[in-house]
């Protein structure tokens, strides 16, 4: 290549980079706009022109959301149910994935096919039956009732199985020589070797559970049991001008996950790719 | 001895604390009136300290509220008391959602048939039984911005908008406002929400003596034409650029309070919003008046807020007594509820001089003679089947996507297909 | 190595027991229950009479079912392929950056994915608000007519599809980035020496090598978007829900709003079968396209 073409490529590359950054900023702009609007008084948010920075900076809507709504309880419900879903899904899937990968037992193939098949079934079609089931078990309006129907995540088992499949057989055989029990093999070898995967899958499951809407929306009729994703859309006033107030509640609901993402950015992105069965 | 009294007193306080009943309360009062109701709940709790405490929650109005009620009754997780729309009582009774309020209950509350207007009492009755305690009547009214109307020379000497007497006059007023270049929308209208527009359209049908249901059949005879007429007026306003299009509820209120819309048709429950904004110095001079007469005579759709006890919760007699006390107390103190714009259902309150002097209630109180209600059937009511079908076709019609005649045809087809 | 079979079985069963118990309770049983319910005239909670296939018979002449069916198909068409292309474009742009710029740009593109749907709803409902939304001020500035995006049937699905792509494409971007990183750099260097144009390079190197990922992204999107509910429900509130129905929304409406569990179950069964049929076809197509190569 001649020096001029290289220079042209550099120049074009630079322009392309600037363009990409601009588009990225524009992409995230609605989030900025939501945050900024939540910091304006209600009569300023409806002004017929654009103000990229509040004329009067106010935290009154945040104060209102934090003191006049049950947002504190919703946070607790969201944390409790998301942790519950994460711990239960990841642990049961890990054990099941390990058994399918490493042990031979009657019914193994059937179980594996069932898991693969359930990958295709939309759990959303089961809302009626989940609702009836939870009602019969008296679990509506409880953390257990929110958690249980959210535990179907076949992809987690599939990923665990893939990872356990790839652990070299030598480890297993060496352990067998030492007369180590099956439990020791699992807890001393397989789990420690796959900590990265376990954390990654936990992060993904947590994000899914935190963001879940449909089921928590149906399973809860009492406002004090709502999760934050549901609460901010249900208990806010239907009438009147409360745009900034609604946005402030939304910012409060999105803040924890956004923070987790910004802090653990690399882990989260790795976790996402893993959850699709790709090793990043 | 003193010590003994002290101990006895302490024991009594302790016993009282133990006997305190918590009443779980659901309402859908999210507007300006919700602020007033929260105040009333706080006042009630103060007046009953140590005996009864209301644990109140405000849910999303309309379909979401009634969906929650239905499912919570079905699974036995219902609240102890809830607000309800009188129009929806027949449907609720049909679905078995409400507990009967017996004559003994009314005796306990110190309330009875004589305390309410016959139409309201009838609205909460089914098969000779009572299912609710009416709190108010809440019609829709015309809100208007006196500052802008005054500048445009469109105020009468009484401070009312010019042209409330006929379709031509009112349209002329809207047109005059539009020609005034400062005005964005002469009329703020909830054109994006068919649920809301049901009230306006039904009022306009009432102005022609139209009926939704006649002997169990929908829009019989020329009633279909009357519905079409009502839709046609509103569509004309849209086509002429006289009202805001595709405007949802909060936006309508915001357009009016920010001065972009000069008038607004909305429920009386937004009165407190205006009063509070005015008190903060953030609002123009405003007024509220009975809807203009567009057709033959004045008529305004109205509904009542009612307290009801849902099925699906096993209450102790003590708890039930506490719930009755809540209903009774609110009814007897509903003079304050009138500051939320509503017309109290309790006759003793509306007879008070203090009520008669209250503004802007006094300005629109003339409409009480011209109120119409939903047909009394399990098909009707806020978020009920008729409401649901009709509102689906209102939005496209009011914004000029669909011809009124076509909308009427579709509505009749779907109503008969339910 | 000798295996102690009985003991291995026991351990295996202990390990899978919690998983199987949960699956039986909240997956297998409800699925069977759904089929039974669809033949009954039942409310949401409580027993009903057996009515044969009546609940299914009404579907073809049920207007709302028609609306829900076609809206779902429309939504899938609007999101799956366009969303995949947007994600591919973003990942191509991101992959050529490096260091902090890349991290920053990726974070900006990915941030929406992390947000709950109700937050996404609030942000866009506000930005596109017909009266006060910033997007409308921008249209005004260009002298264009405002668009009531969430209030007309013309714009509703495209707008919700757009918001959905904005919200979820960060996920696909990450998958594409992983795929792009897996392409050996030498291939590009060799192509660069041949003075191959950028487009040819993409067409003949990147695209074919990325195809397995593209197929995966398309599959995940397809299954996900058929189950759309949350965004459609939220954006319809205070508007015209009956015009915007999608399949899951209609199931919800019949079961929870109208208290008709049996009729709702029949719709659920239809969606269930739709998803399975589409998954199987999709699976076969993927296999075919792999075999062709």
Structure description:
Chain A: It is found in: Cell membrane. Chain A: The chain crosses the membrane at residues 12-35, 74-98, 110-131, 143-164, 185-210, 243-264. Chain A: It comes from Yoonia maritima. The complex is a heterotrimer of chains A (280), B (418) and C (293). Chain A is mainly α. Chain A is built from 15 helices and no strands. The radius of gyration of chain A is 25 Å and the shape is flat. The two termini of chain A are 34 Å apart. Chain B contains 18 helices and 16 strands. In chain B, strands 7, 8, 11, 12, 13, 15 and 16 form a seven-stranded mixed beta sheet that branches. Chain B has a five-stranded mixed beta sheet with strand order 2-1-3-14-6. Chain B has a two-stranded antiparallel sheet with strand order 4-5. In chain B, 45% of the residues lie in helices and 16% in strands. In chain C, helix 3 crosses helix 11 (247-257). Chain C is globular. Chain C has a domain at 71-240: MetI-like fold (Orthogonal Bundle), CATH 1.10.3720.10.
Features:
heterotrimer; B: alpha/beta; D-Maltodextrin-Binding Protein, domain 2; 2 domains; 7-stranded mixed beta sheet; 5-stranded mixed beta sheet; 18 helices; 16 strands; C: 293 residues; mainly alpha; MetI-like fold
The oligomerization state is: heterotrimer
Quickly give the CATH architecture of the largest domain in chain A.
Orthogonal Bundle
**First-last Cα distance of chain A:** 34 Å
Reported by name, the CATH topology of the largest domain in chain A is MetI-like fold
Number of domains of chain A: 2
Could you give a quick summary of the protein structure above?
Chain A is an all-alpha fold.
Produce the secondary structure layout.
The complex is a heterotrimer of chains A (280), B (418) and C (293).
Chain A: H1 3-37, H2 42-45, H3 60-68, H4 71-102, H5 108-118, H6 127-136, H7 143-147, H8 154-165, H9 169-177, H10 182-193, H11 195-211, H12 214-219, H13 228-234, H14 243-263, H15 265-275
Helix pairs in contact in A: 3-14, 4-8, 4-11, 4-13, 11-15, 13-14
Chain B: H1 2-19, E1 21-27, H2 32-47, E2 52-58, H3 63-74, E3 81-85, H4 89-94, H5 103-109, H6 118-123, E4 125-126, E5 129-130, E6 133-134, E7 136-145, H7 146-151, H8 167-179, E8 185-188, H9 194-206, E9 213-214, E10 217-218, H10 223-239, H11 249-257, E11 261-267, H12 271-279, E12 286-289, E13 300-303, E14 305-308, H13 317-332, E15 343-344, H14 347-350, H15 353-356, H16 361-364, E16 371-372, H17 385-398, H18 404-416
Parallel strand pairs in B: 1-2, 1-3, 8-11, 13-16
Antiparallel strand pairs in B: 3-14, 4-5, 6-14, 7-11, 7-12, 7-13, 7-15, 9-10
Helix pairs in contact in B: 2-12, 5-13, 9-10, 9-17, 10-18, 17-18
Chain C: H1 5-37, H2 54-57, H3 63-95, H4 99-114, H5 117-127, H6 134-141, H7 153-181, H8 185-193, H9 198-226, H10 230-236, H11 247-257, H12 261-292
Family (chain B): Belongs to the bacterial solute-binding protein 1 family.
Protein name (chain B): Multiple sugar transport system substrate-binding protein
Keywords (chain B): Signal, Sugar transport, Transport
């Amino acid at each position: 290549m001649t020096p001029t073409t290289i220079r042209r490529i550099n120049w074009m590359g630079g322009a392309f980079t600037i363009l990409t950054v601009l588009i990225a900023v524009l992409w995230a702009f609605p989030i900025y706009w939501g945050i900024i609007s939540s910091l304006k008084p209600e009569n300023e948010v409806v002004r017929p022109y654009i103000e990229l920075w509040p004329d009067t900076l106010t935290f009154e809507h945040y104060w209102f959301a934090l003191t006049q709504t049950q947002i504190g309880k919703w946070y607790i419900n969201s944390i409790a149910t998301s942790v519950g879903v994460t711990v239960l899904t990841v642990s049961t899937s890990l054990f099941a994935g390990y058994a399918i990968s490493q042990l031979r037992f009657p019914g193994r193939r059937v179980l594996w096919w069932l898991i693969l098949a359930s990958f295709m079934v939309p759990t959303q079609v089961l809302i009626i039956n989940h609702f009836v089931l939870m009602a019969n078990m008296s679990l509506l309006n409880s953390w257990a009732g929110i958690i249980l129907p959210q535990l179907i995540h076949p992809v987690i088992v599939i990923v665990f199985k893939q990872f356990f499949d790839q652990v070299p057989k030598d480890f297993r055989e060496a352990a067998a020589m030492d007369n180590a029990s099956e439990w020791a093999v699992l807890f001393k070898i397989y789990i420690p070797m796959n900590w990265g995967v376990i954390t990654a899958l936990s992060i993904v499951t947590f994000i899914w559970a935190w963001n879940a809407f449909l089921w928590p929306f149906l399973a809860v009729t009492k406002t004090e049991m709502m999760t934050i994703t549901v609460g901010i859309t249900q208990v806010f006033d239907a009438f009147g001008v409360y745009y900034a107030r609604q946005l402030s509640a939304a910012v409060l609901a999105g803040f924890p996950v956004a923070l987790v993402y910004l802090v653990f950015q690399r882990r989260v992105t790795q976790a996402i790719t893993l959850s699709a069965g790709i090793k990043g | 001895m003193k010590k003994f009294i002290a101990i006895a007193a302490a024991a009594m306080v302790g016993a009282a604390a133990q006997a305190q009943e918590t009443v779980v309360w659901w309402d859908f009062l999210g507007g300006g009136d919700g602020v007033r109701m929260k105040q009333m709940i706080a006042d009630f709790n103060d007046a009953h300290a140590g005996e009864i405490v209301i644990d109140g929650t405000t849910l999303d109005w309309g379909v979401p509220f009634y969906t929650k009620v239905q499912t919570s009754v079905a699974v036995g997780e219902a609240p102890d008391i809830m607000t309800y729309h009188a129009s929806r009582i027949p449907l609720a009774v049909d679905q078995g959602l409400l507990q009967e309020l017996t004559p003994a209950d009314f005796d306990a509350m110190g309330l009875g048939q004589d305390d309410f207007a016959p139409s309201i009492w009838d609205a909460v009755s089914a098969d000779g039984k009572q299912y609710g305690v009416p709190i108010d009547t809440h019609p829709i009214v015309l809100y208007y911005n006196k500052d802008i109307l005054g500048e445009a020379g469109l105020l009468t000497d009484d401070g009312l908008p010019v042209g409330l007497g006929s379709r031509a006059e009112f349209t002329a007023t809207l047109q005059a406002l539009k020609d005034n270049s400062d005005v964005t929308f002469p009329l703020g209208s909830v054109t994006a929400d068919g649920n809301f527009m049901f009230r306006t359209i039904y009022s306009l049908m009432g102005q022609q003596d139209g009926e939704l249901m006649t002997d169990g059949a929908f829009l019989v005879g020329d009633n279909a034409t009357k519905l079409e007429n009502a839709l046609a007026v509103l569509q004309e306003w849209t086509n002429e650029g006289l009202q805001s299009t595709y405007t949802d509820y909060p936006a309508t209120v915001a357009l009016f309070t920010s001065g972009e819309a000069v008038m607004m048709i909305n429920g009386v429950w937004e009165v407190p919003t205006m009063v509070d904004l005015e008190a903060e110095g953030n609002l123009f001079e405003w007024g509220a008046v009975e809807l203009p007469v567009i057709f033959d005579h004045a008529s305004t759709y109205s509904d009542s807020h009612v307290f009801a006890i849902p099925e699906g919760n096993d209450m102790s007699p003590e708890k039930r007594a506490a719930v009755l006390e809540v209903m009774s107390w609110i009814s007897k103190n509903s003079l304050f509820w009138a500051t939320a714009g509503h017309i109290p259902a309790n006759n003793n309150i509306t007879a008070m001089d203090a009520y008669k002097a209250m503004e802007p209630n006094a300005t629109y109180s003339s409409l009480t003679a011209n109120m119409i209600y939903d047909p009394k059937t399990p098909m009707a009511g806020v978020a009920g089947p008729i409401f649901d079908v009709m509102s689906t076709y209102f939005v496209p019609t009011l914004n000029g996507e669909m011809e009124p005649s076509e909308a009427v045809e579709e509505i009749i087809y779907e109503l008969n297909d339910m | 190595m000798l295996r102690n079979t009985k003991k291995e079985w026991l351990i295996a069963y202990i390990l899978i027991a919690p998983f199987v118990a949960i699956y039986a309770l909240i997956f297998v049983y409800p699925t069977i229950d759904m089929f039974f319910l669809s033949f009954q005239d039942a409310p949401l909670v409580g027993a009903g009479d057996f009515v044969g296939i009546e609940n299914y018979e009404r579907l073809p002449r049920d207007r709302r079912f028609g609306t829900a069916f076609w809206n779902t198909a429309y939504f899938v068409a609007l999101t799956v392929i366009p969303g995949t292309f947007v994600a591919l474009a973003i990942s191509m742009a991101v992959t050529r950056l490096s260091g902090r710029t890349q991290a920053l740009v990726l974070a900006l593109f990915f941030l929406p994915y992390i947000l709950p749907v109700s937050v996404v709803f609030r942000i866009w409902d506000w930005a596109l608000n017909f009266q006060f939304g910033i997007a409308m001020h921008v249209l005004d500035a260009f002298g264009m007519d405002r668009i009531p995006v969430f209030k007309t049937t013309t714009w509703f699905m495209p707008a919700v599809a757009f918001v959905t792509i904005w919200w979820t494409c960060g996920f696909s971007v990450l998958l594409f980035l992983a795929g792009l990183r897996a392409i050996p750099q030498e291939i590009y260097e060799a192509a660069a020496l041949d003075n191959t144009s950028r487009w040819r390079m993409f067409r003949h190197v990147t695209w074919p090598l990325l195809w397995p990922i593209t197929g995966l992204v398309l599959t995940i999107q397809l299954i996900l978007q058929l189950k759309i509910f949350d965004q459609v429900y939220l954006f319809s509130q205070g508007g015209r829900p009956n015009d915007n129905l999608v399949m899951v929304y209609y199931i919800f409406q019949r079961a929870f709003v109208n208290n008709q569990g049996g009729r709702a179950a029949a719709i659920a069964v239809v969606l269930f079968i739709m998803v399975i049929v589409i998954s199987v076809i999709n699976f076969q197509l993927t296999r075919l396209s792999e075999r062709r190569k």
